[in-house]
Amino acid sequence: MATATAARMKKGKETVQPVTTLAGKITSVRFHNPQNGYSVISIEPKDMIETGMVSCSAVGNLAAVRVGDEYEFAGEWKEHPQYGRQFAFCKADVVLPKEKTGAATYLSTLAYGVGFAKAKRIVDALGEDALNRIIEEPAVLDQFHFLSPQQRGEIQEGLLKNTRLAELAALICKEGVGIGTATRIFNTYGQSSVTIVKENPYVLADEVYGIGFKVADRIGMGLNISPDSPYRVESAYLYALREAGNDGHVYLTPKDTIVALDKLLGKQSMVGVENIKEAYAELEQRGLVCREGDAIYLASMLDEEKQLARDIVRLAQMDGKYLSTDTEAKLEEVTEAMQAEFGVIYAPEQKEAIKKSFYKSLSVVTGGPGTGKTTVIKGIIEAYRKIAKNNLIMLAAPTGRAAKRMTEATGYDACTTHRLLRFNPMHGGFEHNADNQLPAGLLIVDEYSMSDLHLAKCLFEAVPSDMLMVIVGDVDQLPSVGPGKVLEDIIESRQVVTTRLKFNYRQASGSRIALEASRVVEFGECRLYQDEKDWKTILEDEPEKAVTRIKAEVRVALAQGLGIMDFQVLAPMKKGLVGVDNLNEVIREIVNPPDALKPEKKTGKDKFFRLGDKIIVIRNNYKLGVFNGDIGVIQGIDSSSIAVNFEGEVVTFSSDDINDLTLAYASTIHKSQGSEFPLVIMIIMRSHYIMLQKNLFYTGFTRAKQRLVMVCQESAVKRCLDNAEKKERHTLLKDRIIAYAGAKPSQSA
Question: Is 370 annotated to bind ligand?
Answer without folding.
Answer: yes
